[in-house]
Amino acid sequence: MSGKNILIIGGTSGIGRALAECYLTLGCVVGVSGRRQALLDELKRGNPQRVFTYAADITALSCADTINRAHEDMGKIDIIIICSGIGEINSSLQPAPELDTVKTNVLGFTDAAVVAYNYFEKNLPQRGGQGALVGISSIASFRGSDLAPSYYASKAYVSNYLEGLRKKALKNKLNLKVCTIIPGFVDTAMAKGVGGKEGLFWVAPTDKAARQIARAIEKGKPVAYITKRWRLIAWILKILPDFVYNKI
Ligand SMILES: NC(=O)c1ccc[n+]([C@@H]2O[C@H](COP(=O)([O-])OP(=O)(O)OC[C@H]3O[C@@H](n4cnc5c(N)ncnc54)[C@H](OP(=O)(O)O)[C@@H]3O)[C@@H](O)[C@H]2O)c1
Description:
A 7-stranded parallel β-sheet has the order 3-2-1-4-5-6-7, with helices on both faces. It has one domain (5-245): Rossmann fold. The chain is of the alpha/beta class. It has helices spanning 14-25, 37-46, 63-74, 95-127, 149-171, 189-195, 206-219, 230-239, 242-245, and strands at 5-9, 29-34, 51-55, 79-82, 131-136, 176-183, 223-226. NADP nicotinamide-adenine-dinucleotide phosphate binds next to helix 1, helix 4 and helix 6. The site of NADP nicotinamide-adenine-dinucleotide phosphate has 30 residues, from helix 1, helix 4 and helix 6.
């Protein structure tokens, strides 16, 4: 792993931050973006030689600038992980949280995914080697939700979008692995916001989730469940008839 350069979009906290720490432990150079400058500074202070930071709001659709700057700072980018996301319970269906979720998880994600794919399409053939484009979807992607409709729908979009890019990379014989990460519950502020603290089970610590994600990327897996047992929940969600699902 040492010698690889990783860009984590949305790496100031939670899963993204744990991924930054995991890759630093593996000897990589890491670029991290997010809105919270104080957290970016903290990461940089911890490892000034191997951390580059980019204050950016993904909803400003400015990922091209982030990726260009990261390429200049690091010389090349081997792996881009789109981790940023928001989600909250919105049982009274207020418009603002629904629309904010779409802006971050759909619009912002799309900007990042498009720019990242194009970056690899332009740079991989020139320099050889393999790239990885990774997005964080969710177990929420498999069904609709009455409590957080926008969040669940946005994650279905993320999964489908990544599948499209995976197909495109394959057809174009681009040496790019496109990886969809499907976490169940991971112990972050977000998990409590979307699922409500009481309903949580099989909650993975962030460092364990990060190690499993890094391993899945290294193996070039198209889809990876985090932790692995969430594959079972995904299977149940897919086959559950509507009349049962609607009662949950
Ligand atoms: N935790 C879980 O149980 C779980 C389960 C399934 C999927 N996920 C997914 O995992 C990803 C990471 O979430 P997390 O659980 O680690 O939560 P988190 O700790 O809240 O992390 C979210 C990250 O997204 C960034 N972000 C949010 N809005 C942004 C914006 N407008 N512009 C740029 N960055 C933004 C945040 O950075 P700033 O606030 O500094 O901008 C932060 O680094 C999300 O996509 C989430 O949907 C989480």
